Structure prediction request, 389 residues.
Amino acid sequence: MTVRAIVVGLGFAGSVLSRELAEAGFEVLALERRSQIAGNMYETVRANGVRVHQYGPHIFHANSGEVFDYLSQYSDFYPYTHRVLGRIQGKLVPIPFNFTSIDALFPKSEADDLEIRLTEAYPDRERVFVSELMNHNDPAIERLGKFIFENVFVNYTAKQWGIPASEVDVSVINRVPVVLSKDDRYFTDRIQQMPLNGYTPLFEKLLDHPGITLRLNTNAAERLSIDAASSRVYFDGEPFDGPVLWTGAIDELFRYSLGPLPYRSLNMVFEDLPIERYQKAAVVNYPNEEEFTRITEFKQMTRQVLPEDTTILKEYPLPYDPEKRMEAYYPIFSAENQTLYDEYRALGAMIPNLRFCGRLAEYRYYNMDAVVERALQVAKEVIRKYAKR
Ligand SMILES: Cc1cc2nc3c(=O)[nH]c(=O)nc-3n(C[C@H](O)[C@H](O)[C@H](O)COP(=O)(O)OP(=O)(O)OC[C@H]3O[C@@H](n4cnc5c(N)ncnc54)[C@H](O)[C@@H]3O)c2cc1C
Prediction:
């Protein structure tokens, strides 16, 4: 007998779950609150013809070929090496901070001296953490570490998380790399690719299966409810005993009964400009003076050729308020928030046919490759469980 399943949310987590279950013979009802699929990877075309990532720039990078091979069934890709510049003391320098950044910001003799000291101090390393530099016993290296911390990271982190610069703890950013060469790649992963025609067509193909019924503009929290007494899920008022795979915010499913989980949000401000090119790299970070954190120029990632137009995106961090129509972008990690999340998970664990998957449901930062890998794993477990019946 065909098993009916409900999948909530159609980002990578929900779309991969839907596809895998449909392939295994489940009849999947996929519910998405927005009027479009693709979650935070959704792309749209501006009036000037420029394709943009509506929810911020997304670059696929991974070390394992498994996820890339999986996604390659649904789209061709092209290699794309992401490079980022940062505006530091009025100059544009590579981020992560590298020897080119040192050359740009220090007088030549001092820069040469610093690079020799670094190469001698770390003969077998390509990258070090800024905290290692700050704690080095060579005073010149220690000073450089402090310079990078103060000029590249402190204010950026303070802006991103909405805390005073004086409260930024080095432990938050101690794993940020400093590159001991002129290598200016932002990611070092073996695979760095972009979908040839963009993310949305990839998702369209992923969800194109006769076993998947899509319902857009549907807030699943209004259709699903949990009855703790009977440990059952109700859908439109009727008990539903097939798998329910929730990739939305976990606290929303439980009507915020234990309180909302805190997030940081972003105000995404797009600007269409009548020029061919706006900036020297696809992304330029503004760690210090400006209120926004970075500017993305999408044409430099999508390879679109439009000689007279470009579109840029400025990202302004702000607190998330679930009452307002805001996007929850980044979970705020703290012991207290993790405890609250664990309490919601414990409520979910009472319901045998309910599973959580994805960045909102698991309250953690997932890169795209990691969330696809996770969804493939959850799908396998669900399929195995129902095959036994
Ligand atoms: C600004 C930014 C930039 C990023 N850049 C990169 C990058 O360059 N590379 C990378 O690998 N990763 C990047 N990421 C991470 C990437 O966005 C995530 O890996 C990905 O979105 C996770 O997919 P998901 O399906 O878990 O969540 P989402 O993509 O957020 O999908 C969740 C979906 O569920 C829907 N939903 C929620 N609640 C309900 C409900 N009640 N009813 C119905 N539907 C609901 C939402 O509308 C959404 O469509 C970035 C993240 C951010 C915030």
In short: The mean pLDDT is 95. The pocket of flavin-adenine dinucleotide is lined by residues 8-14, 31-34, 39-40, 56-59, 219-221, 247-249, 252, 329, 358-360, 366-369, 371 (CB under 6 Å).
